[in-house]
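WARN  no MSA supplied for this record, continuing single-sequence
INFO  ligand: DQA
INFO  echoing inputs
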Amino acid sequence: MRVGVLHGPNLRTLGRREPGIYGTATLADINRALETLAGELRLEVEAFQSNHEGEILDWLEEVGGRADGFLVNPGALTHTSVSLRDGLLATGRPFVEVHLSNPDAREAFRHHSFLSDVATGVVYGFGPESYLLGLRGLAARLT
Ligand code: DQA
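INFO  complex generated
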């Protein structure tokens, strides 16, 4: 089984981006932890980050054919992007939405997600652990 891991806009700067909200783990730290867990779960992960919505849609088209599911932290696209919703649905694969922070405990504009109602599951508020919990949930769904 292969899982595509998608990190949306501004997640490349994790570690120094608003550490009071997002913590000090870097994106490389998170990807390493996911690789380790994937090994335990006998999954392969393929991670991608972009600040550009079009690039993300291109990646979904490309990887959609070879991934069995997706783990997605869409960043701010969560709250804005019908294109990302459509792109994920077009893959025909299950996906889990994750967030480091708890968007419901933040500004009102973060309370709506264009993805949650079509996600297999949603995990948020646990920092990097959200990704690991999400991968476990997705693995259980896939295997
Ligand atoms: C985020 C939450 C979003 O509201 C925000 O725009 C992000 C990060 C999170 O992981 O907590 O970029 O997805």
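The pocket of DQA is lined by residues 10, 73, 75-76, 78, 99-101, 103, 110 (CB under 6 Å).
INFO  checksum written, moving to next record
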